[in-house]
Amino acid sequence: MTDKRFYQVLVPAVVLFGFLPFGLGSYHLHVVIVSLFYLMMASSWNLLAGYTGQVSFAHAAFAGIGAYTSGILAVRFGLNPWIGVVVGTMLAALLGLAVGVLCLRMGGIYLSLTTLGFSEILRIIITNEYEVTRGTMGLQVPGLFAEYSKVGYFYVMLGAAVLTLIIIYRLIHSNIGLNFRAVQNDERAAASLGVDVVRVRVLAFTVSSALAGMAGGLYGHYLLLITPEIPSLDQQFLVLSMTVIGGMGSFPGPIIGAFSLEILSEYIRAYGEYHVLVFGLIALVAARFAPNGLMGLAKDRLVRRRAPAKTVAAAAKS
Predict the structure, then answer these.
(1) Closest by Cα among 18, 23, 3, 46 to 256
(2) Given this model, what pLDDT does residue 206 score?
(3) 132 burial class (0-12, 13-18, 19+ CB within 10 angstroms)?
């Protein structure tokens, strides 16, 4: 897809999306806002896992860093939440850079285990530092607006989601994106051609962490309560599921996955304690019959539909 084509699709879609608050009630608007949060999370995790092949389990932890940084600065120091979100994003990027420099030389399962440990360490610190984070009780934080407005938060999350998508699109369709794919496909061949493999991985990790930090900061101020649930492994695996089921390594895949699974989770919430089981079964069925995600399934059907048409055209020519 060319840049012109991308913006021709993006701009009308955003304009149409912008009319949603006029036709949705409070509950459905909340579902859309949460979906936009997961869109940012899944798309930024896809940048790392889908385009460089590095599986990190610390993505939700970086969202938590952005959320808690902004929340603590607002509650303890009276800092404006908007500035707090920027600071939280920068801190998530810096910690992502530090973790990336330390861990990304290892790669593979070692990176996954290290980021898993980082995520658990952060959760333990948040839970036990009650005086600062309020532990499992959660930290009550001020909103981004003087008067709480769900419509206002919708447009903020929509703007942040669009910014996230543009950053990711520009990256993967640049020379840096070519390096991402080269490292993912064969890092030794990429290194032999002069690609700095570690630097490419660290760049993807840092950008991905920063975007997660921004999403977490905005989401925390939307909820007005920041709990250890945001940086939890449950959130991490939910983001991973959205990316994989939507289509890892494709640009629209995480967008489709985020909206599909968030809306689905709202419907099956009626099953009470069993909703997690139902959600897992649906995810397993999707993984079994659509290993390349919903995007892969759609592409396969499109190819099958075009194949007979080409055969008929070839027969007519002969």
Answers:
(1) 46
(2) 94
(3) middle
Query: How far does CA 27 lie from the centroid of its chain?
Result: 22
Residue 318 pLDDT > 60, yes or no? no
Tell me which residue of 302, 293, 310 sits closest to 248, measured CA to CA.
293
Return the bridge partners of 225, or none. 140
Q: Which amino acid is at 279?
A: F
**H or E, element range at 139:** strand 139-140
- Between CA 60 and CA 80 the distance in angstroms is 24
Residues 266, 267, 271, 274, Cα dihedral to 10°:
-60
What pLDDT digit, counting tens, does each position of 153-193 carry?
A: 999 999 999 999 999 999 999 888 888 888 888 878 888 88
Q: Are 261 and 242 in contact (CB under 8 A)?
A: yes
Q: For residues 249 and 185, is the Cβ–Cβ distance under 8 A?
A: no
The set of residues, in sequence order, having a beta carbon less than 8 Å from that of 243 and lying 6+ positions away, is: 42, 45, 46, 49, 50, 253, 254, 257
CA 252 to chain centre: 12
Amino acid at 59: H
Is the predicted pLDDT of residue 65 greater than 90, yes or no?
yes
Helix 26-52 / helix 233-247 crossing angle, nearest 10 deg: 80
Q: How far is CA 268 from the centre of its chain?
A: 22
CA-to-CA distance for 196 and 45, rounded, in angstroms? 21
Closest CA to 66 of 196, 177, 210, 208: 210
**C-alpha Rg value of the chain to the nearest Å:** 21
Which residues, other chains included, contact 286 with Cβ-Cβ below 8 Å and sequence gap of 6+?
Answer: 245, 293, 294
More confident site: 131 or 209: 209
Q: Model confidence over 209-220: pLDDT tens digits?
A: 999 999 999 999
What is the structure's pLDDT at 192?
84
